[in-house]
Amino acid sequence: MDTAVNRELVIAGSQSLPAFPRIVARILETLNDPDANLNLLGSYIERDPVIAGQVLSQANLASNLRHRGRTVSDVFTAISLVGLARVREVAVLVSLSQVLDEPAPAQRPAYFWRHSVAVGVTCMELAHWTKPPVNVDAALIAGLLHDVGQLWLQRFRPTQFAQARAQAVQNGVDITAAERALFGVDHGEIGAWIAESWGLTPEIAAAVAHHHAPDAVAAQPLVAVVHVAEVLSNALGLTQSSCDRVSTISTPCCETLGLDWGDESHRLFGRIEARSQQAVALFN
Length: 284
Description:
The protein is mostly helical. The chain has helices at residues 7-14, 22-29, 34-46, 49-66, 75-82, 84-100, 112-129, 136-145, 148-156, 158-171, 175-183, 187-197, 202-209, 221-235, 251-257, 265-281.
């Protein structure tokens, strides 16, 4: 059987994956217009019972902490109470969970969703922390989708993908090297093709493509954020260890982001751990 994978195969196969969520597309379209964000998100969230339920749940949790006994029952009040940034985060997490829930849970690696959330949230925190401006919403989306190419391989090349993972462990090589030996491409490149087919920005596609080996494009802040987030999420033990992990951090990426890992970094690590736990709790 020919195991080679190319762009045409990936795009054709990605049509059977869930469509990129409309609400996330709206977020990307209106990032620079806060008023449009509020109006679009409020009206759209009202029509999505899963997202609305999570937003209202977050708002009532906040309300109980501030005003005992007060119940929030409408989305716009919830947005004002929780804050637009938190609402966007919940909307992205819930919407993309539907995409990342493919293939079926029985086929998907058990750690996949927890790892995707951990890297996404770490990207958000790094975007707040770094010197060059990085859009927080784009960072979350790129982090959540960084391994989406693995989902494609799991669905369309399951036996060979398992073989690649086994070879990576046996030979002590990075998973991307084992994938390229077997498929001609790795899951980062596959994920970038999927991101492009969904109409996502070139910056997000590049971050997905290069998260294992970013040095050649480390000057792109979003690429650097996703790579460093992957390494940090593993180093902090936010997800189960696997052969897919990136364990060596890129010095050029750290330089791009202005990271020096001094005493202040402990605050960053604490925020990452706390926010990761909160995000994963949305789906428990």
